[in-house]
Amino acid sequence: MIPTLITLPTVADEIGPRRPGAIYQNSDGRFEVLVLVTDPREAAQLLRRDSARWAVIVRDTLRPDGQPHAVGSVWTTSDYLLREGRPAYTQAA
Questions:
Q1: CA 40/CA 45 separation, integer angstroms
Q2: Judging by DSSP bridges, how do beta strands 80-83 and 69-71 pair with one another?
Q3: Minimal CA–CA distance to 16: which of 59, 90, 77?
Q4: Is 38 buried (19+), middle (13-18) or exposed (0-12) by CB count in 10 A?
Q5: Which among 19, 53, 57, 80 has the fewest CB atoms less than 10 Å away?
C-alpha cells in the first residue's frame, strides 16, 4: 500500500480570495474586506490567539451598524466571492 501524502493548506489557501476591496458572503453575513494582515504577530494580537498566522479586517455590509472587526476563519466552500478585491502584492518594475 502506498501512503497518502497529506498536504497542509498554505496561508494563501486559508485566506482564499479575500483581498482588500473584495466582498464575500457566507451564512454569517456579507463582508467587505478592508485590510489583509499577514504579519503573524499583528494577526495574533488582533485575534487574541498566539497561533494566528493572518487576519482579515472586515465590515458586514448587511448591517447598517456593521463595525470593522478581525476574523481568522479559513476560506471554505460555504464562502463565495461577490466582488474581487485588489491584488495584495504588486510586482516590482
A1: 9
A2: unpaired
A3: 77
A4: middle
A5: 80
The amino acid occupying position 53 is R
> Within 10 A of 58 (CB to CB), how many other CB atoms are there?
24
Q: Is 14 left (phi over 0), alpha (psi -120 to 50) or beta?
A: alpha
> Which three three-digit cell numbers place residue 17?
480570495
Residues whose CB falls within 8 Å of the CB of residue 76, separated by 6 or more in sequence, listed in order: 26
Over the stretch 19-71, which tens digit does the pLDDT of each residue have?
Answer: 999 999 999 999 999 999 999 999 999 999 999 999 999 999 999 998 999 99
Residue pointed to by grid coordinates 493572518: 54
Alpha helices in 1-93 (DSSP H): 11-15, 40-47
